[in-house]
């Protein structure tokens, strides 16, 4: 009989589901890291919330571990890469607490607008300070949502019920989906300039980390209200504090922090800040939903092999896996390449398979491309649900197959159409399993993708390479590989560099300021 350990506080319904479906379960919340390491070897599955840290060491100790289930959305507490390397499936429940989290964001917004926490404390102290707590009416005000996925779309609906106007900045929100939601889609800077209240609903990743900084606050309206019930780390907390102290931001409501548990924070003690201890999903209904869902998903996988909402597992049979595995990596990297360069809404995606790859089962490869494409800017996207995400957002996904090879024996070409442009990137396998990018925007180039990359477009003029090398060298950034391609002499050109460390925003701005440089994008794979 399959055996599962629940190491965090989950609803008793989870235990009931496991037992009813025929899975043995032990409920042991509050285990220390050492206790978990000692015990995990005897279990096939581990069910957690956010308290348990599923580290590489824990996974290595889980000799029989087959699946880790997160009752909730975020998997920050799980080393997904280590789990993947060990063949452990990581699942989450991306929809179980969306309503609850959205309601908390709306509650925080209203509490901020009417200064309810401070007024309550003052009244309890017998002060009766009516004039001190004059608030703001939200009806007719402009709410700016940074991100409009599961939670953001629900916040938009609730805000419209309050007669608010809603604008959204979300690169992956299609025009049709925006129209269905009744929101106006704008770019990030326009949202900052127009919104009376700014509310965050974006995932935390390399693209969004520290996205709301001093420069962003400077672009907002004077007296703006700011709400973050999304993820800590998207906001530079010291910059938010400074914006409040200067009067640029009238007040902030924060449920998430860069470091949690947050027992000390630069925002604590400020009268203008409402702070809650990551309560977005903390309702009995949400906890019941995610507990039941994760128990059902884990049981299905352990008993039948069925996969739902897996973060790291494509739908591939045992017979297909050896042939598809190198293509899966290539497909996801091509998608990630295009996704990290996409700045406006996707309208259409075409995946072309040529040569040997066209003779294989390409369905998981399409999912892998979409997973890579959506991953940079969307939370909870995986190879299982990526096609569904595309459908929900009105993105047309098509594939073409040509078994006769072209210039390469096997080739995958991804073409992405956005609101502003059409971009393509193609790759192949050398030696059976070594992935290479061989074409970008129709320009021939041959490059291996590494962990840290720089994608640069420029005018093909003398001095560009020297300036790039000097600027990176002055910043003590080592270049591992340097690949070039161009249309014709003197026209558009591209450079793809692999470097040994991440590139920060300041260095990106320095590179953008060099002569003949058109675009600079740091990429990560």
Describe what you observe in this structure.
The chain has 525 residues and is α/β, with parallel strands linked by helices. It contains 17 helices and 22 strands. Helix 1 runs parallel beside helix 12 and helix 5 packs across helix 7. The longest helix is centred in the middle third of the chain and has 21 residues. The mean pLDDT is 92.
Order of adjacent strands in the largest pleated sheet: 8-7-6-9-10-11-12
The count of β-strands is 22
Number of helices: 17
The proportion of residues forming helix, as a percent range, comes to 25-40%
Properties at a glance:
about 525 residues, alpha/beta, Rossmann fold, 60s Ribosomal Protein L30, Chain: A, 3 domains, six-stranded mixed β-sheet, 17 helices, 22 strands, about 35% helix, globular
